Automatic annotation (TrEMBL):
CDD domains assigned: INT_RitB_C_like (cd00797)
UniProt keyword terms in alphabetical order: DNA integration, DNA recombination
Gene: xerC_19
Domain of life: Bacteria
Tyr recombinase domain residues: 1-159
Identification of the protein by name: Tyrosine recombinase XerC
Species assigned in the record: Cupriavidus pinatubonensis
Gene3D superfamilies noted in UniProt: Intergrase catalytic core (1.10.443.10)
Length: 169
């Protein structure tokens, strides 16, 4: 999900019974549904319980993720927190001004999904439209920009190509 989509989630957009998030006003003004893993539902349920307890009897925004003041999370604060955490876990050096960005996680997710499909014997070409819709892209070609040439991805693609060429003159 894009940062703006996460920031714009409201409590009404979370259906833990059906395990679905409704993304409203996504890129190009579209709405889409995102399936949730059971572990994500558990974490969200816990967060919502804590959120309700913390804000009990006090005014708070209807946005799902709120700041210490009870309003929608600020994008700048989210980025700063991500940079701080990435320094703590070693993704960037203490004084680095460059390093991974939060949005890069979408790229990593897309690339890893493709690698998993290759390794499991699935047909990535057939599954790519699913990934594209999941990411909220209007066209499969938009998703191709996310697929960086990771060594592992290239290895899997070459393995498939070699299998196709096996036994040919």
């Amino acid at each position: 999900m894009r940062l703006g989509e996460a920031r714009n989630l409201e409590l009404q957009d979370v259906d833990l019974t059906e395990a679905i998030l409704t993304i409203r006003g996504a890129k190009l003004g579209k709405t889409r549904l995102i399936p949730l893993h059971a572990s994500t539902c558990k974490v969200l349920a816990d967060y919502i319980t804590r959120r309700e307890h913390h804000w009990s009897g006090r005014p708070v925004s209807s946005y799902l993720f709120v700041s210490n003041w009870g309003n929608r999370m600020d994008a700048g604060a989210i980025h700063r927190t991500f940079y701080s955490l990435s320094r703590q876990i070693g993704l960037r050096g203490a004084s680095d001004s460059r390093g991974p960005r939060l949005h890069d996680m979408r790229h990593v997710f897309a690339t890893n999904a493709l690698v998993r499909w290759y390794k499991s014997g699935d047909d990535p070409e057939r599954r790519l439209p699913i990934l594209s819709a999941y990411l909220g892209h209007a066209h499969v070609a938009d998703t191709q920009w996310y697929l960086s040439g990771s060594p592992e991805l290239m290895r899997e693609a070459m393995r498939r190509l070699e299998q196709l060429w096996e036994g040919r003159p």
